[in-house]
Amino acid sequence: MEIPSSEIYRQLALSAPYLELPEEFTLIEFLRFHFRFKSLKNGISIEDAVQYMYLEKSTEKTIQHFSSGMKQRLKLGMCFFSACPLLLLDEPTSNLDERGVQWFQGLVADFGNDKSIIVGSNDPREYQFCTEKVAIENFK
């Protein structure tokens, strides 16, 4: 099915370490803003998403005061909790500690089954769930 270029943003979500977030928004302001442009995944509310990202104590905190790990969980949560069929994840566990890596793997298992996920990474923990792999060095 062909998708008009004006609608592509509704079909995909992106998470990357270099992706900037609006630092002056509180978490709840940002999520409300974000989900005006993208639909929430069926069965998930903003409150559910906040809890799943372990950010319930930070709803009124501005994003500029988030740690790098909190920002990464937010970026990944925006992807997985959006009703988008395609996720593009660049180094998804960047800035996450071991608990965060396990959280990401759970996120994939719990919310990634109905999505096509493309991961750019050198870390096998980030793409172990992928059914197909492309090694860039094989194409140089």
From TrEMBL:
ABC transporter domain ranges (all copies): 45-94
Superkingdom of the organism of origin: Bacteria
GO molecular function annotation: ATP binding; ATP hydrolysis activity
Keywords in alphabetical order: ATP-binding, Nucleotide-binding, Transport
Matches recorded under InterPro entries: ABC_transporter-like_ATP-bd, ABC_Transporter_VariousFunc, P-loop_NTPase
Presence of keyword Cell inner membrane: no
Name of this chain's protein: ABC transporter, ATP-binding protein
